[in-house]
Specification:
heterodimer, A: alpha/beta, 31% strand, B: 251 residues, eight-stranded parallel barrel, 10 helices, 39% helix
């Protein structure tokens, strides 16, 4: 299986690569369109600021490529947020794959929302074998509103989207690559989708 | 519900853990990688590695160590010690660290916080503050607590937050190594006045100390070293106790 990890200068690619290694898969870190379109599965990670990350994606023409992909794509954290319609962070348009917008957590909540929080109302095979109220590791200041694409939610004084899905596109707000055994199961599930 | 975090801290020198540990199950008790693996299996929520090697030459050892740790453990970790510029941070994050903690360099050049937060995002910048209670004031110290500065804990923490720090790691020098429990009053003020998470450090001696700091101060995480290294407190037992005390905790 060829797994492409999209590298657009927005952090944590190595963490994803190592997490795949731990569950017995090899990933390819790349920003080359030719490598991405020939992959069987695609992981789109991200840590950083939405506005500048989107700018880099445009420069690499990845913003038009990703929505057209037919393979399973998993966006993580900022990656997932960029696959939504709009982000208040950097007031930037996203790729519009998922319904929902990224909004900043309101006062007086502590920002970033960092640490382990429960995921619930789990839907789709991305959460196969994962019990309700399992813990995921989150670190983010903006959240995605609940929408028809929401397949998991988490409460931080109110519920927001912990994971999204539409057709062949998936997204996790938490970091499966850092979420202990539960996170590794999410990655395994993603790689087994469609098999 | 967002849970409170328990964070074991490992001191590293020349790529090895400094304090001896008495984990019989470890093949190599001095190996940070082995110890990190053990802690993550036992339920640590995060880990902090503090490099006390000073020279830049040895720093390369740290980067390769960070990569070895990132390969093995499946929870987040922070690396600190002697970090002074954007390049240091870039190398550590690229090697697989999730966050870095900065201390002395930020005290002497506070703009460093803005630079790092701007480049890498607030979420991966932890501002570590060592402070001692002197003549009725919490004074900030640098260089591992050896050098007194003119800065005061609460105003410095606020400034750090304003400049873009994502978390504050406060070590109470009055408590560090005493095993008399965490500093409650100063942690309470920090937790109530800051809008970013606070990690309490210094003074952990028994399980009740952790319960007290969470229930009485509102901090988001508690860090300790020797009580875990010497198995005086077992992570699993600690987390069960905290849950029983009504604290949100990941079991």
């Amino acid at each position: 299986m060829k797994i492409a990890i999209i590298d657009y200068g927005a952090g944590n690619v190595k963490s994803v690569l190592f997490a795949l290694e731990r569950i017995g898969y090899k990933g390819l870190v790349t920003d080359k369109i030719s490598e991405i379109i020939t992959a069987d599965k695609i992981i789109f990670p991200g840590v950083g600021e939405a506005g500048s990350a989107m700018k880099t994606l445009r420069e690499k023409e990845l913003d038009t490529l990703i929505p057209k992909l037919k393979q399973d794509v998993l966006g993580i954290c900022l990656g997932m947020q960029l696959m939504c319609e709009y982000s208040e962070e950097g007031k930037t348009e996203g790729m519009g794959i998922f319904t929902g917008n990224a909004r900043q957590f309101p006062k007086p909540l502590k920002i970033p929302h960092v640490g382990w929080n429960q995921i619930r109302h789990l839907k789709t095979n991305l959460f196969s074998k994962i019990p309700e109220e399992s813990y995921g590791y989150f670190v983010h200041s903006f959240y995605i509103t609940l929408s028809d694409c929401t397949i998991a939610q988490t409460d931080y004084s109110f519920p927001f989207s912990a994971a999204l899905a539409k057709d062949n596109f998936y997204g996790c707000q938490f970091h499966p690559e850092k979420s202990s055994g539960i996170g590794e199961q999410v990655l395994r599930n993603f790689l087994k989708l469609g098999n | 519900m967002l849970t409170k975090r328990i964070i074991p801290c490992l001191d590293i020198k020349d790529g090895r853990t400094v304090k001896g540990t008495n984990f019989v199950s470890l093949k190599d008790a001095g190996s940070p990688v082995e110890l990190a693996r053990l802690y993550s299996e036992q339920g640590a929520d995060e880990l902090v590695f503090l490099d006390i090697t000073a020279t830049s030459d040895k720093r390369k050892t740290l980067v390769s160590l960070v990569e070895s740790i990132a390969r093995v453990i499946n929870i987040p970790f922070t690396v600190g010690g002697g970090i002074g510029c954007v390049e240091d941070v870039k190398a550590l994050l690229e090697a697989g660290a999730d966050k870095v903690s900065i201390n002395s360099a930020a005290v002497y050049r506070p703009e460093l916080i803005n630079e790092l937060a701007g480049k890498f995002g607030n979420q991966c910048i932890v501002l570590a503050i060592d402070a001692n209670f002197v003549n009725g004031r919490w004074k900030v110290y640098t260089h591992g607590g050896r050098k007194e500065t003119e800065k005061e804990l609460f105003s410095w923490a606020k400034e750090g937050q304003k400049r873009g720090a994502g978390e504050i790691l406060f070590t109470a020098m009055t408590r560090d190594g005493t095993k008399n429990g965490f500093e409650l009053e100063a942690n309470k003020i920090l937790a109530q006045t800051l809008r970013i998470p606070v990690i309490a450090s210094g003074g952990a001696g028994n399980m009740q100390n952790f319960s007290d700091v969470f229930l009485q101060t509102g901090v988001d995480a508690a860090l300790a070293a020797s009580v875990f290294h010497y198995k005086e407190i077992k992570l699993k037992e600690l987390k069960l106790k905290l849950k029983k005390d009504g604290i949100a905790i990941r079991i």
